[in-house]
Write a structure and sequence with these properties.
By secondary structure, the protein is mostly helical. The chain has one domain. The protein is 65% helix and 2% strand. The chain contains 13 helices and two strands, in the order αααααααββαααααα. It has a two-stranded antiparallel ribbon. A hairpin with a 2-residue loop joins strand 1 and strand 2. The radius of gyration is 22 Å and the shape is globular.
Length: 421
């Protein structure tokens, strides 16, 4: 199962610590945190070569999971085509990506439900949480799924493939927005964990580059309206005018210039380059996973898994920090390994139910007489679940990683002994 298919669904550097700039107190954009919430970076104690191996391993891990695996896979794909031929290489990568989804893509969706609905009563009613944030929880957690269920229920009741297809187009429109917003958050979090913070202007330029990349990617290539198929459902895509590509290319070019200006501004302020690992994760996520996803036909199959690994790494960081705090007094909770293992098993089991178990049962019970030539295809409930979970995931994700959430704020704290530049 592939959850990200626009045509057919949310990681040896110089060891130098950058001083925290003095900035005016103002809120960061969505998915970021206020400057005051971040601890001031301090210079690490001198370490031996052996003592630096831990941070270096962490740097390598974050580079690979943040998006660096893409640079490993691209030459691997070229070699695979050389050895097997284009058709066999595509078949093998497609086969691998389909089954890897059980352990990577599907849990990346399902773990969001586990994070979002924990302590949901407190998040809806606690006066310690801002009214705006409580309304966001109410909207994303209850109103959005109710509207999606009504949309899909009506489409299935009427056997309307075009109705389901319209929701798929909403999904495709939002997926690249979800990718670039995650890229923006990854840049800020990984930079803050290295003691690096950007000025408000620099953050706005990074964010503008993300949004302009999203719009340009959605307008490319030109589509006059064509027949599409997704999860067995046949529908027609909405046409967009031919001038839309040019119209969105202009802000994308301006966004690229703004990105360059942000990096120059940072260097002039800090007399050092922006940290490589966060920046590479940001660029891979926006350029290779969104704008130029077709640079290699085999890369297209694994982009959802790469995005999911990036997401799951930050889930690990957030849940590991919470588990460590709960291990000691006064909670004396489960050991770290047990807590993370239960979360992984729960996310895998829930992912299987959402993408295989429940829709498979419903398709077997209610679509047994539908032929493969039907516009809804033989698996309309699978299509409905895929659309529902993808779109709902985007809304939940935009709530749980905001600055108002204490668990998300903890991600911005630099871990002891890991403040590489």
């Amino acid at each position: 199962m592939r959850h990200f298919q626009p045509t057919l669904p949310e990681r040896t550097l110089p060891e130098r610590v950058l001083p925290a700039p003095t900035l005016p107190e103002r809120a960061l954009p969505e998915a970021a945190l206020p400057e005051a919430a971040l601890p001031a970076p301090t210079l690490p104690e001198p370490t031996t070569r052996a003592g630096r191996s831990g941070p270096l391993r962490q740097e390598l891990l974050e580079f690979l999971l943040g998006g660096g695996l893409t640079f490993v896979l691209l030459p691997g794909f070229w070699l695979l085509r050389l050895l097997l031929g284009a058709d066999d290489a595509e078949w093998n990568i497609g086969f691998l990506a389909f089954y890897a989804a059980y352990l990577i893509n599907d849990p990346h969706f399902s773990v969001t439900y586990l994070l979002f609905y924990r302590r949901v009563r407190e998040r809806l009613l606690s006066p310690e949480i801002s009214a705006a944030q409580r309304l966001r929880y109410l909207w994303a957690g209850f109103c959005v799924p109710a509207l999606l269920a009504a949309w899909l229920g009506l489409g299935l009741a009427r056997s309307s493939a075009e109705s389901l297809g319209l929701l798929f187009q909403v999904m495709f429109f939002l997926v690249s927005w979800h990718y670039v917003k995650q890229a923006f958050g990854v840049l800020l979090v990984l930079s803050a964990r290295r003691g690096v913070r950007y000025s408000p202007l620099e953050r706005r330029l990074f964010l503008f580059h993300c949004l302009s990349a999203w719009l340009y990617a959605r307008a490319t290539p030109f589509d006059p309206g064509s027949a599409q198929i997704e999860q067995g459902v046949f529908y027609h895509s909405l046409p967009h005018p031919s001038w839309l590509m040019t119209a969105t290319l202009v802000p994308f070019a301006l966004g690229a210039l703004g990105l360059a200006w942000a990096l120059v501004s940072f260097y002039r302020r800090q007399r050092a380059f922006a940290p490589l690992v966060p920046l590479s994760s940001f660029l891979v996520s926006t350029w290779l996973w969104v704008v130029y996803a077709s640079v290699d036909p085999l890369l297209f199959y694994v982009i959802p898994a790469l995005h999911s690994l990036q997401y799951l790494y930050f889930v690990y960081l957030e849940r590991a920090a919470a588990a460590r705090r709960a291990e000691g007094p006064p909670v004396f909770g489960r050991p770290l390994g047990t807590a993370l293992g239960l979360l992984a098993l729960s996310a895998t089991a829930l992912g299987f139910l959402l993408f295989h178990g429940l829709p498979g049962v419903l398709d077997d019970l209610f679509v047994t007489g539908a032929g493969p030539d039907s516009a809804l295809g033989p698996t309309p409930y699978l299509a409905a679940f895929v659309a529902f979970v993808n779109v709902h995931h985007y809304f939940m994700d935009s709530v749980i990683w905001r600055r108002e959430v204490p668990e998300a704020r903890e991600l911005f704290r630099a871990p002891a002994g890991f403040r590489a530049g």
